[in-house]
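User: what does the whole thing look like in 3D?
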Amino acid sequence: MSAHILKNYDSDLSALKDSVVQMGGSALDALEKSVAGLLEGNLDQCYDVIDDDEAIDTQEKRIDEQGMSILLRFNPVASDLRHVLSSINICRSLERIGDHAVTIAKRSRKILKAGAVNEVRLIDPLFREVQKIVSSALTVYSDVDEEAAMKVIQMDQKVDDLHKSLGKSLSAQIAGGAKETEPLLNIIFISRSLERIGDLAVNIAEDVVFISSAEDIRHT
Amino acid sequence: MPEETPSTNPFQATSSKRKVKDRIGTVIFACFTYFVLACALFIFGKITYDGAPVLFTSEAPFINTKFFTESPQTLVEFTNGAGELIRMDQTDFTVFKEENPDVTINDEHTFSYSGGGIAGPLVGTALLVLVCMVVSLFIGVAAAIYLSEYAKKGKLVSAIRLAIMNLAGVPSIVYGLFGFAFFCLAPWFPVFTYEVNAETTIGAFKIPLTDGYLSFQGWGNSLLAGGLTLAVMALPVIIAACEESLKAVPGGFREASLALGATRWQCIRTAVLPYAAPGILTASVLGVTRVAGETAPIMFTAAVADKAKMPWQDAQGSGVFWFSDMLTQSVQALPYHIYTVSARLPAHEAINDMRYGSVFVFLILVVGFAMTSVVLRARYRNKLKW
Amino acid sequence: MNDSSSTLDSADAPEVASNEPIISIDNLSFSYDLGSTNTLRDISLEIPAGKVTAFIGPSGCGKSTLLRCLNRMNDLVDTAKVTGGSISILGQDINAPDVEAIELRKHVGMVFQKYNPFPKSIYENVAYGLRVQGIKNKSVLDQAVEESLQKSALWDEVKDRLDSSALGLSGGQQQRLCIARAIAVKPQIVLMDEPCSALDPIATARIEELIAELQEDFTIVIVTHNMQQATRVSNRTAFFYLGELIEYDDTSKIFGNPTRKQTEDYVSGRFG
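Assistant: Here's the predicted 3D structure for the full assembly of 878 residues, as structure tokens:
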């Protein structure tokens, strides 16, 4: 798309986009660290994630400011308006991904403190899938690729399936009278957070579809 | 030893040479300007100095009423027995001689048109200006409206406009000759008359009426011919001024009016002319004032040096015949009178009163008219702001 | 107001059903120089009755020209000529030989960019259009003046000084007076050529508010350079570029998700 007559408009829009992509990187990083901490039994990584959440919140505030300033100064319309609105929406999703990462980190900390259990291995496939969907969603946003966005939305089905089967097998273990139920419950919570993160990635992809086609495909 | 501190003033003069040059330039330009002012002051000063004493007297009513109420007549100068130099009007002189038959009259001289007053020329000029004003306003405004409101912009209109502008450059004597040929001699203008002018009706047309004729004949040396000649001369100025005034009316008025369903003429009449009228009037007065001062155009067409009666006193008959006759009377006119007493009579001290008096009155009239129209225009401009 | 509003409807004009276009422009081409170059090319659009339609586009795109075609104000330009297509208003081809521009303009009023009240009294300004139609009846004029001033939201501000000069009003009031003057002749359509471009933001807001109210009684076509204004006041927006109609759609579509790239570029400030 050709450049705006106002150079500042262009640079502000791309700065907004950069901020969102950067925040996405931070959120993905937090997600990876929180699960990696659990899988590798590294408590420090879990603490890092909890500490770094503040940084993600700061990034969110900064994106809000950038978006508001653009709305105020340039009165964006059409795709520019959608871009700004969606970016703010996406940063909201990213903030919640960050929050879920903190939840995962806290649960991981509990599991690790209580002594590692073998069942944490079960998280790995789900985590890989969620990691993939989040990083794809971020790429899709960065490229404003509608087609790829639709694929991201479809990827969520696999996340849901993995989450369900994991839940089933763990519930079965608990029902079967496993001796230590708390770590298993924590793993179930972690699995649920991961599933939520998948949903948030879908939200991001839907926002990208809105930017590109002006169609609101949420809840359809 | 205190150290010399560099000046902190950044606006200090750097070169005095530039300043001197600037000063010299200013003085030169000022000199030329004051030269023009000096000319004007000389004209006004000299004429007021010599002319004012003729108009104003030291006794009540402080104004020389005779100068305004009597027409020019012959002035007689003589020396009486006691060696006193006496000047009196011809009529007074005749009475004086009858009353004092034994008085000694030496060195009797007569000077035509130098006695009496300037009532005739004043009235003649007023009538000429009136005719000129009516005709030129009517034709001028109509032409200007056509040119600026109706005519399609094109080569023809540009040519017409150029022709009109060129008319402004035609020397006044040429207008005089044109008027003489066109209005005085050419047998094609209608006039109500009892007796058809045989000289200019050759081959021309006349319609018999119950007690006279509507004759198509030259008007001869007449008020109408002179007024029309002046009008033709004033037209370029008036058309230009009218066009300016019409253009000065914002286009928005026209658009608004037409957009409300007005016809072209309704638009001009209600949304253009009322706001152009003050400008048209004042500019026209200014234009007419300029031609009113001209001598050449009326020299052949209207003016005579000597005429005892006013046009309406001389006119014969009644009704349209009287009016027609009045308009075809020749008249005296102030500029022509000034020309006569100044250029056609030999220089003599006895004539000076009439000369300076006439010029002074004429100057006051013309300047007065011009000033009034300028002031009026300025006032209307302030009033009508949009 | 409700009782009196009926008198603002022209009696002698055919009624238009609300879903029918009141103006339909069909392949219109228009030239200012007798056809050497076309200022407007192949414009086709239908303007719905009782709605506000905005014409937008960069300077020289022909939007004002098209507006002036609608009440044949372009007739004032000697060399102006419709070189193709037609405009129908109320079902009548307005360039037909038996159409009198003066009569057309009684049905299609116009408000101009620079407010241009006559240097007459407020009353005479509003009554002008009726007077040129030959209406002399004082009570008819009084009623029309009051009604128009009320409709243009000016009555309360000027009712005590109807006889004072219109030039004593503020810029915004003068423009509303011009609107009152235009609607006094009871047109069905009011054309507005950048009516707010000479006004401050508050006066602009008043006019926009007024446009929203007038929409109930009149079909309004507005040319504007202010795209925010177009989004605020209009239902439909037409985007013109270089004498062509690029896109014509609901205003929300034009400014939310235009179909054509040129429109998107223009409304989002990307034009060179």
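In plain terms: Chains A and B do not touch (no CB pair under 8 Å). DSSP finds six helices and no strands in chain A.
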